[in-house]
Structures are given as C-alpha cells and as structure tokens.
C-alpha cells in the first residue's frame, strides 16, 4: 500500500524526527538520496549537464546541495537561483564544488537583461535564462516543495518555460507549482518526468489531475513516520493476496457468494454478457442473471455457468447496458428490476443505466447498506446536476475529480468510484483511495461493465464498499495490462484475463517449494 500524507502531517513528522537528529541530518539524508537517483539517471540517459532550479526554501536547498554533491563527483552542474534569497549553506557548498551559478532577480532581470513582458511559454531565445538552460540534459526542479502554495510565482513560471523539451525533469519532492495537497492542475507548473519524494507520498502524487504532473514516483527513505491518518491510500499488486477472498475446502458455491446481475437491454445487450462473464471469471460462486430476452439469450450462450432468473443473492450489480428509457414491456420490467435493487438489503454496485435511476431518495433508501456508484466523469456530472440542482459540467468534474466524487458521496451516502486513468474511490467517510494501474488501451467500450462485475464479486464475498471498489479497480487494470501486452484491447479480453491475473497476484511473493 502506498499512503499519502497531507503536508501539515509531514511537517509535524519532520519536527518530531528532527528533535532526535543532529542539525542538518534530515536534509543530508534527502540530499544523499537525491544524488543517488540523479546519478543513476545520468548513467541511464548518458546525460552531460544537470541544471538545478533553486527556490527560496528547503526544497531549493535540497536541489542546490544535490548539484554540489554531483559536481564533486565530476558531473557538469549548474544552478539558477534568486539573488540574495538562497540557502547560505547550500550556496557555499555549490560555489566550493564548482557549480556554475546564475542569480536572477524576482522581477526577471539578470544584469542588463530584462524579461520585460515576455510571457511564460514564449521564451526569448536571447535571454540568459534560456541560454543557461539550453544545454541541460537533466533539470532538477527545486523551486517549490511542500511549502508551495498558490501556483508558481511569475519568475518561477518563466524559469519553467525556459526548460528545453528534451531535458529529463526530476522534481524534488513535488512538481513545483502544483498544489502538494492535490487539487486543480496548474498549466504553468512543472510537469516532471520523475518526482523524488521523501519517505511518504504527498496527495498531489496520487490524486488526479496533479498525478499527471509528477511522472514516475521514486521514494527516498529519510526515516519520516507520520502519526496522522493518511489522506490518500493506493493499493499495490503486493496487497492483493492479503485482500482477495480465496475459497477453502469447507466452501460450496453458495458460501462463496452469489451475485445478482441486472444488466442489458434490447439496445445494449452485450453489456450483460460482459458483466456476467467478468463475475464468473473473477471467481464468484454463482451468478443469477436478470434481463430481457435478447441479452438473456446472449448470456445463455456466452456464459452457460450463469443461472437465469431471480433468487437469493449476497450482492447485486445493476445497470450495465440498462436503458431506462426503453419503452417496451420488457424494458419497463428491467427498469423495475433496477429500482427493486435500489431497495435491496444486500450490497449493490450501481453502474451506467442504474445511475440514471438514482434520485435524492437514495441516501434514505440505502441508509446503513453498502452502495457503490461507479460513474465516469460524464455520469458524475449528470448525477450531481440532478441531485444538487446545480449545473455541473463534465469538464468541471475532470478538473477536480476528488471534490466531485466527495460531493456525490455526501449527497448519496454511497461509496463513489469515479473512473478515469486515475480512478478514485471516496466513501462517505475515510481517506480517498486512488488507483492508476491500467493502460490507456483500457479506455474502450465495455471496460466499465467488466469492472462492475469484478466489484460485485468482491461485495458478494463480504468486502466493504471502499475496499471492494479499490481492489476491483486494481485487479481490473492489471488484467487489462496483462491482456494488452502493450497493444490494443477489447473489454471481453480483460474479463477473460482475470483468472490468470488473479492467480499471478495471489502467488506473488509466495516461496516456491520444490
Ligand atoms: N519535510 C520533510 O520531510 C523534509 C523536507 N525537505 C525539503 O524541504 C521542502 C520543504 O521546504 P520548505 O518548508 O522550506 O518549503 P518550500 O517548498 O521549499 O518553499 C517554501 C518557500 O517558498 C515560498 N513560497 C511558497 N509558495 C510560493 C509561491 N507561490 N510563490 C513564491 N514563493 C512561495 C514560501 O514563502 P512564505 O511561505 O514564507 O511566504 C517559502 O519561502 C520539502 O519539499 C523537501 O524538499 C528535506 O530537505 C528534508 C525532509
Ligand atoms: N486513459 C485511461 N487509462 C487507463 N484506464 C482508463 C482510461 N480511461 C478510462 N479508463 C478505464 O476504462 C474503464 C472505462 O469504463 P466506462 O467508461 O464505464 O466504459 P463503458 O461504459 O463503455 O463500459 C474504466 O475502468 C476506466 O477507469
């Protein structure tokens, strides 16, 4: 599990730890780790020149000490800093090590050169800053760390705009200009190839949309152990064996869980096949399928293991391929079947068409019962608009998915899984969960139906809503990765990959006995 802590909790852990350490020891540990990572990248990339962007705080000091250390090992290093606002110890170390130093002014002047009104993103090639950075193979971003707030100052945005596209950008702790606690993405901020963070992740590293600016996340352990609850949790492949329900010799098909699936319509018949296939492949004891004639015929053919018709179940999946507007008798019956599920005492996953039938009575009707909603951004916007009577657009949800999912969880009392390249799970209480494990090939029609099936299996086997949703998302994405092998993917293959993916994940790390 990867856990991210809010910056105030990181600062609290830092001050506790510092009481037990000699002065400067914590930063020395951070710098040592940073030097190790940058040295490895220099070797891997054949890099010749490293340039640090040095801000006014300890984040800048980390970057400046790191280039000082690298320069001592013979690396060609340079650093851009603000005149008169630089960590004195780091500056002295850099000067002594022969780092090429350039002091810039906050109002963007260097010597006789003035940036005047040159806008970030339209870098003037004659400027000393652009020239200074032009040779950089690796840029170490130390403008702002966890103390950063409110985006980049203008001087910082101008420095970032001057970074050549060819440079490999390593952010120290947090990509500068992005809110360390997550939130909206700043277009002027740093978009790093890699972020080196200390001991624990920060929310910006795991939450959309800022995760996109962090690049690959690399940890350097400096001994910090926050005592607060994490703000964000992410399951990893190593967690699956501890959480995934595995049958024992005492089990039978009923004790392993029966999942009711209300899916499909005359118009969207295939979604029923995908959701039922997924549940069977993910290891349910039994599926009971409910739907109109056409999808029922397809399910019978494609998944002979499924039992057609209602009966006792331990959990429900309702909505994949359901068309609430289908005006036929069969369509109305399917709509009623979804409405009945909304009142069922068992845990339910509400997906796709079922989300259109969620109204403001849902919080009351499902109080004290497990409910997982699985919208994508468009469905989340539609639901919020309907339930809050305030217009919420798709792009507003995409710009701040965590707030949108939280709001939806608040008004429905449900666990909300908001789908995307980073999928987030927000319960009525508890930390945000975030998963980003799937290839972009997974953005394909029907993938959501498969996900609903997997989550349903986990609910039927007794997992709670947030864990079932996060674990389901992880395993669904790993199956997609396995099935894709780096190439195109259809949703059915994701479902079919589930047995071997789950077996691999369960066997991970288990010693081989010969
Ligand atoms: N905690 C740990 O685990 C360890 C932390 N370490 C390192 O320390 C880093 C945190 O250092 P930090 O506290 O000095 O904050 P940092 O991000 O450098 O910047 C603060 C400065 O920037 C300013 N400022 C802020 N926003 C601004 C803006 N928009 N525009 C302009 N200015 C702005 C702010 O101003 P002020 O708040 O005073 O107004 C202040 O002067 C951390 O990320 C990690 O790299 C490691 O060395 C060891 C272990
Ligand atoms: N860019 C992406 N990278 C990885 N996974 C993605 C990406 N975009 C979407 N996904 C995943 O693909 C699935 C799409 O689900 P959904 O939109 O409901 O499809 P459908 O309704 O057609 O079944 C979700 O699991 C989502 O998280």
UniProtKB/TrEMBL annotation:
UniProt: AMP binding residues: 419-423, 448
One Gene Ontology term of the molecular function aspect: ADP-dependent NAD(P)H-hydrate dehydratase activity
Cofactor note: Binds 1 potassium ion per subunit.
Reactions catalysed, as given in the entry: (6S)-NADPHX + ADP = AMP + phosphate + NADPH + H(+); (6S)-NADHX + ADP = AMP + phosphate + NADH + H(+); (6R)-NADHX = (6S)-NADHX; (6R)-NADPHX = (6S)-NADPHX
PROSITE patterns given in the database record: YJEF_C_2, YJEF_C_3, YJEF_N
Binding-site residues for (6S)-NADPHX, renumbered to this chain: 271, 321, 376, 449
GO annotation (BP), single: nicotinamide nucleotide metabolic process
YjeF C-terminal domain: residues covered: 236-505
EC number: 4.2.1.136
Domain YjeF N-terminal: 10-230
Keywords: ATP-binding, Isomerase, Lyase, Metal-binding, Multifunctional enzyme, NAD, NADP, Nucleotide-binding, Potassium
Cofactor(s) this protein requires: K(+); Mg(2+)
Stated role: Bifunctional enzyme that catalyzes the epimerization of the S- and R-forms of NAD(P)HX and the dehydration of the S-form of NAD(P)HX at the expense of ADP, which is converted to AMP. This allows the repair of both epimers of NAD(P)HX, a damaged form of NAD(P)H that is a result of enzymatic or heat-dependent hydration. Catalyzes the dehydration of the S-form of NAD(P)HX at the expense of ADP, which is converted to AMP. Together with NAD(P)HX epimerase, which catalyzes the epimerization of the S- and R-forms, the enzyme allows the repair of both epimers of NAD(P)HX, a damaged form of NAD(P)H that is a result of enzymatic or heat-dependent hydration.
Subunit-level organization: Homotetramer.
Family affiliation: In the C-terminal section; belongs to the NnrD/CARKD family.
Protein name: ADP-dependent (S)-NAD(P)H-hydrate dehydratase
Protein encoded by which gene: nnrD
